[in-house]
């Protein structure tokens, strides 16, 4: 039963990956900013789901294969998953679960933007390849309004998921 | 409980390290290539659906583009009639209209799988080095109209940078056989800028910009767009010109890569 469930989860990740990497990126609308895999990893980690690691590893692996910088997405998603668990422990819940979720979401989204850039830089130093060096020099420089747009779009979706499942969280926690 | 958690964490770290190790040593090559090939046809379909959504949400700009292209066809028809009386100019037009066939260029038709999330001006293509794609090759949207360059080619996928990317640079000249040349750079948004045009060289609105012979992997004479604005300040060494592509780069679906001559 657990194996069947894992297989279903893998299929779900594959479908989400296809939507994110092809449908959203081809739409040229605000959907381009959506990082569904990252959102789901943050959410699953927040509700302490056992499937968070599978999402982080398989989703990260697929994104890395597509983007040509292997390891960056994989490490980012696994780190984010771990970070949510750590932050859940250390961020006070005096403002309520929703306040805690907002702080964790924003922190994770910001780290989720900057960590891949640092990992790219690290990869560039570790693998001293000229081809890779040229490749890693590409990619948009930080444009603040784009970063803000990215954070807002993903944050709104995270909040929607949170509100939608609020009752379920209360049962879980 | 704590012990189980530590064990899970250790397992996750080991899996991540092994996946990265297997990738860089090539041990996972077969699995990775299979996964890429498996997803490719579905991604192509989903990208085209995404593109259709884009067309629905940008109906106004598509209508404007359509209007502009209709006007352009009208102008080109008049130009064609004027030039057809002259043998040499007629030859040039034929070359422009059927560039790839006439020049016997080898080309590969490719589909777009997606765009990079870090830079949506970089397209992911469904063919790679195994199909003859190499870094620096010209990416054309219609035969003879360049839209970008190959940035990186892996075995079965490749990455193409559109000319509108702010890091894109391309050596260009004017199609009228004059010596006017410059460097085409991408601008934020969807426009192109022809920079470093020597002040004494002539350029006027409506001139057609083509690739020059300065880039090794890019054939001369591929159409880029037309001059829509000129910026020249007295006393400056160089002039700048705004270049408008003939169609929007946002609605691209299938492309042609010029592999070799």
In total, the number of domains of chain B comes to: 3
Residue stretches of chain B low in confidence (pLDDT < 50, at least 5 long) are: none
CATH architectural group of the largest domain in chain B: Beta Barrel
CATH superfamily of the largest domain in chain B: Rod shape-determining protein MreC, domain 1
- Choose one word for the global shape of chain A: globular
Q: What's the number of extended β-strand segments of chain B?
A: 12
Characterize the structure shown.
The complex is a heterodimer of chains A (173) and B (261). Chain A has 173 residues and is mostly helical. Chain A is 79% helix and 0% strand. Chain A contains eight helices and no strands. The two termini of chain A are 26 Å apart. Chain B has five helices and twelve strands. The model of chain B has no long low-confidence stretch (mean pLDDT 80). Chain B folds into three domains: 52 residues, no CATH class; 40 residues; 157 residues, Rod shape-determining protein MreC, domain 1 (Thrombin, subunit H), CATH 2.40.10.340. Chain B is α+β, with helices and mostly antiparallel strands and 261 residues long. The interface between A and B is large, with 41 and 49 residues.
Brief rundown of the structure:
The complex is a heterodimer of chains A (173) and B (261). Chain A has 173 residues and is an all-alpha fold. Chain A contains eight helices and no strands.
């Amino acid at each position: 039963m657990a194996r069947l469930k894992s297989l279903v989860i893998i299929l779900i990740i594959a479908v989400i990956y296809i939507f994110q990497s092809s449908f959203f990126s081809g739409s040229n609308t605000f959907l381009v900013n959506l990082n569904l895999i990252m959102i789901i990893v943050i959410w699953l980690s927040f509700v302490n789901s056992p499937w968070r690691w599978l999402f982080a590893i398989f989703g990260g692996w697929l994104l890395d294969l597509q983007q040509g910088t292997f390891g960056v997405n994989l490490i980012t998603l696994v780190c984010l998953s771990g970070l949510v668990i750590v932050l859940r422990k250390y961020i006070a819940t005096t403002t309520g679960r929703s306040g805690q979720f907002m702080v964790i979401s924003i922190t994770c989204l910001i780290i989720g933007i900057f960590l891949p850039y640092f990992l790219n830089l690290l990869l560039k130093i570790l693998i001293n390849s000229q081809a890779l060096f040229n490749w890693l020099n590409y990619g948009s420089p930080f444009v603040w309004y784009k970063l803000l747009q990215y954070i807002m779009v993903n944050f709104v979706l995270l909040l929607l998921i949170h509100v939608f499942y609020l009752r379920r969280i209360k049962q879980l926690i | 409980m704590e012990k189980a958690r530590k064990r899970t964490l250790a397992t996750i770290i080991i899996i991540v390290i092994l996946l990265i190790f297997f990738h860089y040593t090539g041990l996972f090559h077969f699995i990775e290539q299979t996964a890429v090939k498996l997803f490719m046809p579905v991604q192509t379909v989903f990208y085209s659906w995404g593109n259709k959504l884009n067309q629905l949400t940008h109906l106004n700009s598509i209508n404007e583009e359509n209007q502009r292209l209709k006007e352009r066809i009208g102008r080109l028809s008049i130009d064609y009639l004027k030039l057809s009386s002259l043998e040499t100019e007629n030859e040039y037009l034929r070359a422009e209209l059927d560039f790839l066939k006439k020049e016997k260029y080898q080309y590969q038709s490719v589909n777009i799988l997606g765009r990079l999330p870090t830079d949506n001006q970089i397209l992911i293509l469904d063919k790679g080095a195994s199909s003859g794609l190499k870094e620096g090759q010209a990416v054309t949207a219609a035969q003879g109209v360049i839209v970008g360059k190959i940035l990186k080619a892996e075995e079965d996928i490749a990455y193409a940078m559109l000319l509108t990317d702010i890091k894109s640079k391309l050596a260009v000249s004017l199609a009228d056989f004059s010596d006017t040349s410059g460097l085409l750079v991408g601008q934020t948004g969807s426009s192109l800028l022809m920079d470093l045009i020597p002040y004494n060289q002539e350029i006027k609105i409506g001139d057609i910009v083509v690739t020059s012979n300065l880039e090794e992997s890019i054939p001369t004479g591929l159409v880029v767009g037309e001059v829509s604005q000129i910026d020249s300040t007295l006393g400056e060494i160089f002039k700048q010109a705004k270049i408008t592509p003939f169609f929007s780069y946002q609605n691209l679906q299938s492309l042609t890569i010029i592999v070799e001559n």
